[in-house]
Amino acid sequence: MFCREQVAQLRDVEPQIRDRGARLLVVGNGSPSQAARFQEERELSFPLLTDPDLTAYAAAGLRRNLGSTFRLGVIKNAARALSSGHRQGSVQGDPWQQGGAFIFTPEDEVLFSQISREGGDHVDPQELLEHIPAG
Amino acid sequence: MSPSENTARNLRDIEVLDTAGEPVQLGDFWREQPAAVVFIRHYG
Lengths: 135, 44
Hints:
The complex is a heterodimer. By secondary structure, chain A is of the alpha+beta class. Chain A has five helices and four strands. Chain A has a two-stranded parallel ribbon. A two-stranded antiparallel ribbon of chain A has the order 3-4. Chain B is an alpha+beta fold. Helices cover 14% and strands 25% of the residues of chain B.
């Protein structure tokens, strides 16, 4: 699963992100208890937050992979369906929701922005690191 | 201005949940230092 791969890669570069005086924050969209379990299993030292109703995903301009039907109502319905247990197999969170990565400064500057278009199209941790100003 | 230039401001007041289910404001994470914010597709 590429998501595990992505988190493992992020875990590997997290010390370097800290060395540059920045911090890493990961947002998913399962339930808090899923996030807690995931954080414990993966021994993550950075905050793992969750956005079950996909408000932050939508505000970040991140796609759901349903062509042109990107509407908040659709997202809310999907989140409700998922939170009431209508999900497949071991997928936790909304399987249609795409990810992305950003670097923000205290002045609300956006130093890096990547919005994924399809599954597996996720940020290269080294590329992320390169966009963080040293020290 | 492209949408990405507003993303920090679009997100800073939004609340998400920590692993205890408590609301936290996203902007708190880049108030003191830069932050790399990664949205993953799901936990799996």
